[in-house]
Amino acid sequence: MERARYIAIEGPIGAGKTTLANLLVERMGGRLVSEPVDENPFLGSFYEDRRKHAFQTQLFFLLSRFQQQQGLFQQDLFDQVTVADYLFAKDRIFAALNLDANELALYEQIYALLGGRTVKPDLVVYLQARQDVLLSRIRRRGRPFERHLDPAYLDALGKVYNDFFFHYDDAPLLVVNTSDIDLAASAADADALIAVIRRHRKGTQHYNPTR
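The chain above was modelled as a monomer; its predicted structure follows.
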C-alpha cells in the first residue's frame, strides 16, 4: 500500500483523538474531518440519564457522521491527506452499549442502509489509555456535558472498544497506548508517533511508547 491518504483516528473518550488528528493535519498538510460532538443537542442529557436519551443521541451521531462521509465521497481523496477523528464503523460500539434490544434492532436497520455507502480509510489508528489517564484528560478539558460522566461507563466503553478492534480487519490498524505520553505538550512524543504512522502499511501493529 502507498502512503495512507485517508486516516481515521479512534479511541474512547479522552484518548486524544482530536489532538492527534490536528497534529497529523498540521504535519501532513491535509484536511480535517471532525466528529460533530458539540453539535449534538442530546449529548448533555445523555450523560445525565443514559437510558432515557440514548436512542436520540445515537441517531443524531449516526446521521451526522453519514452526512460527513457523503461529503468525502464527493471530494477527491487522492488530492490531499484526509484525517478524521472518528471511524464511521465505531458508531455501532456505542449503539450496542447504550441501546435496549428494540432500539438496537431499529438502529441496525438504519445502519445497514447507510454503512455500505461510506468511505473506507487507508489506515485506522486506535488510541488506548488507562482509565485514570482518560478521566484526568476529560476533567482537564472541562466540557460541561462530560461533568456527569460515570467512570463505570468509561470502563465499559474501553472494554467494548478493545473487543471491537481485536476483531477489526477492514483496514490496516495501528494500536497505540497513549497512557505515558503527552501528544499535546511533548513534540518528541508527537514526532515519534507520527513517524510510526507514516511507516505503517498493512496488518495490525501495536505501539506502546514509554518515557
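The mean pLDDT is 89.
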